[in-house]
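One-letter codes give the sequence; the fold follows as tokens. An example follows:
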Amino acid sequence: MVQTNLLQILDSDTILVGHSLECDLQALKLAHPHVIDTSVIYQHSRGPPSKPSLRWLSQKWLNRAIQQHETGHDSAEDAKACVDLLKLKLRKGKDFGLFNVDTESLFTRLQRKGIESAVVEVGSKGGFAYGDKVRSCVNVESDGEVVDEILEGLKTDHAFVWARMKQLEIMSRLDDVERQTEDKMKVALAEFDENIARLWDSLPACTALMVISGTGDATEMTRLYAKKKIYDAELKAKSWDAIKEKWSSDDLEALNFAVDKARTGLGFIAIK
């Protein structure tokens, strides 16, 4: 019924304005040539793959709080926010609301200063990603070998060694049942502690050791990505009413928060 009513008022020249409209168009089984999506013309402050929620965009750029109702979203309120965001974008220019980051590789900066670098990774496919910016790139099979190669690199005139351990990252991809049943995370954390302790004990004096987690807890992000994957597959094969778990704008917002959480890591630095 909704699809039929829309087709009576839309034509090929109509411009649709909204937020994350791909979800709505997929649900309606519609394709349209002219769409302005506020989740596309504005960026999340953390960049892709995160997408900004309409509530966040409205608060940040319009200084307007929306979606505060206990009964859920107000479609008229959401639509007005989208139109006002589009008007603001047209006034400010195409680069408004984008978060472009101009950065320089750490290895490039060190090379300019004449500092030799090395990279040690578990499962690395070689130094192609680093080009000629590092003196050496070593591929190893375990976190224990990472420690061995860091210490070896420091013996061969490398002033800076960047290394990545993988065991905890692998554990974070396991579902909760497997982690609890096998107790693999507890074992992985103990092994990580042992490797860091061995590295610290073996470092030469006046060496700085920096440990960064890289990511936070990715459990919720992984769950939501899995849900969206199932939804996308069912959407292609089933009718809308037959889909058990539908993907909504609330799910998209939850995914954005989960991605933010996964991107927020921990770190510490010490000088021996």
Q: What stands out?
A: Strands lie at 16-18, 35-37, 117-122, 136-140, 160-164, 208-212, 267-271. The chain has two domains: 2-100+220-260, 106-167+179-200.
